[in-house]
Structures are given as C-alpha cells and as structure tokens.
Amino acid sequence: MAEEITYADFDRVDIRVGTVVEVSPFPEARKPAFKLVIDFGPDIGMKKSSAQITVHYTPERLIGRQVLGVINFPPRQIGPFRSEVLTLGFADENGAIVLAAVEQPVPNGQKMM
Which of 6, 33, 54, 85 could form a disulfide with 49 if both were Cys (CB 3.0 to 4.6 A apart)? Predict the structure, then answer.
C-alpha cells in the first residue's frame, strides 16, 4: 500500500472521463501500444495518449469507449509521439492492462470526485 495522503493531495490529480475518437497503431513503441485521441469535452478538448492496451482491446472496440485519464501530468515524449494524458487501467493476472472505466455514460470532461 502507498503512503497515506490527504484529500488535498488527491484533489491535485485531475482525473477526467473522455471518449476515444481515434486509435492508431504505435509500431515505434518499445512495448505494443496504441496511439489514442480522446475527447475530454469542450473545455479541455482532444488529448493524445499512448496506451499499452493491445492484449485486451482492438481499435474497433476502443472507438466510442469512455476512458479515465490523468490530464494534469506534464506531456511525455514516447519515441516520436507526445503523450498528453495518462490513460488509467489495471494489470490483469498476466500483466496485461484492463482499462478503468465508468459504469454508465457521463459527460466528457467530468472530473472524478
């Protein structure tokens, strides 16, 4: 378990929901990954993310899916791609990532509370 934090610490992490609108292969990545474009609504807009989610997901299955992302980390250069959002998920028993998601649709850009 990680070190205990305060609510103020948690509140500094800006986790939002967005809808995947584009998916493309990322052959230059060291580990298999997709390049995602995620719509976080009119206030935040479109953000790009590299996600190592190729075991459980196909591009067709990802388009239109709502995902959770941390939008206030600094962008990270991954090879030739600049990832702007950390897409959230959990490792299964084999280490493959399963996306964290909302149970029912909510407006894009909604902040996790």
Answer: 85
